[in-house]
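Input record, target 12 of the design panel.
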């Protein structure tokens, strides 16, 4: 094998193991309120992807702080607010949602992220659907 091929292979293996695949990803949120006539389908971006983690097989020997795993989470984000159509006057027809601008691998912050995996997916509409255009 040539020296260039070996060096390229070593560089690829090293860089591939240290880089993450955590990035903003397109996602559709379905929002509805019981009082409102429509379900709103909102296209946004969320943080999704793979982050390198540590093997915690030795968890009895390690400190609790060493056991936390990195997750793909927001680095920069902003909130946008939309109006849910078909709501009566006595309800608040606004819904705010996050838009990921950039992502990072890090600790999950429960102030703005759901750090557990849902077993039941409820991201669908039960009412007639309207699409949000921003």
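The sequence produced for target 12 reads:
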């Amino acid at each position: 094998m040539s020296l260039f091929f070996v060096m390229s292979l070593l560089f690829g293996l090293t860089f591939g193991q240290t880089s993450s695949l955590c990035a903003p990803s397109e996602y559709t949120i379905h929002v509805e309120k019981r009082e409102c006539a429509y379900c709103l389908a909102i296209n946004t971006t969320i943080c999704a992807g793979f982050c390198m983690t540590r093997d915690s097989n030795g968890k009895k020997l390690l400190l609790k702080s060493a056991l936390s795993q990195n997750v793909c989470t927001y680095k920069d984000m902003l909130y946008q607010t939309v109006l849910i159509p078909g709501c009566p006057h006595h309800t608040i027809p606004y819904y705010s949602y996050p838009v990921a601008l950039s992502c990072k691998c890090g600790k999950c912050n429960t102030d703005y992220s759901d750090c557990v995996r849902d077993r039941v997916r409820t991201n669908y509409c039960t009412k007639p659907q309207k699409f949000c255009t921003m």
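DSSP finds one helix and five strands in the chain.
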